[in-house]
Design brief:
- By secondary structure, the protein is an alpha/beta fold.
- The chain has helices spanning 45-53, 95-105, 110-123, 139-151, 169-186, 197-203, 221-226, 231-236; strands at residues 5-16, 19-30, 34-38, 60-65, 68-69, 80-83, 157-161, 189-194, 206-211, 214-219, 241-245, 248-252, 258-260, 268-280, 283-290, 293-297, 299-300, 309-314.
- Helix content is 26%, strand content 34%.
- Bound molecules: adenosine-5'-diphosphate and magnesium ion.
- Magnesium ion binds at residues 45-46.
């Protein structure tokens, strides 16, 4: 990426008693990018975000924002804003007052407050909702208000900690696309936290995969998915077959394996018995018992019968190595 670095993290470390929440993280984040911290619960994502925001102090290491070390500064002296999963709106204030609250605290004059709050409402597509109370909004609308309240401050960086976690699947998928479009439109750097791999793949320019307080891999969604560097990443992002053939340990995604009633020539072939067929909506998983163990294939050549002998084949070039 050719954009300048906006946040530079070096050796970032934080423990809580015996728990090593974050252990020596290095990460450069570029201006205007959408970067996602992806990992299982407890892997240290929120702790990193809280240290960037200034709600938590590092035990060691540094965080620079636009070239200035901010590790020891309080939150309000950092040009970043956070959007939380639980929205944290003021229930007694209407939408417009919620949005302009931060500006009021900073002493911004009334006319400018109104102008900027109205613009923020427009950005999150909530024109006309200014007079409503949070209780009169749906979950998705409340999340948008929370977003507008952060955007109105025009921060250089927006931190989002599982902001879509409370929404149902349909709305979440819609918000993922909207949020990504909004990020492109405003050009603010987004640091987004999620444990949902599909969400991360959908939205991000780059993904940092977290495991036990460390970054296991950093890359574009395609790099992370197609060339996972560790067993952990290959299993956390997508599905993987781990197969031992003679002395070779190979990894292959189910969608690259063709399954058929007859032999199909390819650089890898295997025979087995079709043990199960699992319908999962957009794809169907075929579980095949082979001499090399259970293999999952997603790519059927024709209609297949449970319990029958089947042939698997795939291109060796689609296999990947992990440590
Ligand atoms: P994630 O956001 O990836 O789920 P967190 O950063 O919240 O992970 O937590 C990382 C680890 O640090 C977890 O084991 C968690 O229990 C622990 N932890 C986080 N905050 C605190 C705290 N304030 N006190 C004690 N332990 C904490
Ligand atoms: Mg968290």
């Amino acid at each position: 990426m050719s954009s300048p670095v906006i946040i530079s993290i070096r050796g970032l470390t934080r423990s809580f008693g015996d728990v090593h929440a974050v252990t020596g993280i290095d990460l450069d984040i570029y201006e205007g990018e959408f970067i996602t911290l992806l990992g299982p619960s407890g892997s240290g994502k929120t702790t990193v975000l809280r240290m960037i925001a200034g709600f938590e102090k590092p035990d060691a290491g540094s965080i620079s924002l636009s070239g200035k070390d901010v590790s020891q500064l309080p939150p309000y002296e950092r040009d970043v804003n956070t959007v939380f999963q639980d929205y944290a709106l003021f229930p007694h204030m209407n939408v417009l007052s919620n949005i302009e609250y931060g500006l009021r605290v900073k002493g911004v004059a009334k006319a400018e407050r109104l102008e900027r709050a109205t613009e923020a409402l427009h950005q999150v597509r909530l024109e006309g909702y200014g007079e409503r109370k949070p209780s009169q909004l749906s979950g998705g609308q409340r999340q948008r208000v929370a977003l507008a309240r952060a955007l109105v401050n025009r921060p250089s960086v927006l931190l989002l900690d599982e902001p879509l976690g409370a929404l149902d699947l349909k709305l979440r998928e819609q918000m993922q696309i909207e949020l990504k479009a909004l990020q492109r439109a405003v050009g603010i750097t987004f640091i987004f936290v999620t444990h949902d791999q599909e969400e991360a793949l959908t939205m991000s320019d780059r993904i940092a995969v977290f495991n036990q307080g460390k970054i296991e891999q950093l890359g574009t969604p395609r790099e992370i998915y197609n060339s996972p560097r560790s067993s952990f990443v290959s299993e956390f992002v997508g599905q993987t077959n781990k197969i031992q053939i003679a002395d070779e340990k190979i990894n292959i995604r189910p969608e690259y394996i063709t399954i058929s009633n007859t032999h199909i020539e390819d650089s890898r072939v295997a025979k087995g018995v079709l043990k199960d067929i699992i319908f999962v909506g957009a794809t169907t998983r075929y579980l095949v018992e082979t001499d090399f163990g259970l293999i999952i294939a997603n790519n059927p050549k024709e209609t297949l019968v449970l319990g029958s002998s089947v042939h698997l084949s795939w291109d060796k070039n689609k296999e990947f190595l992990v440590r």
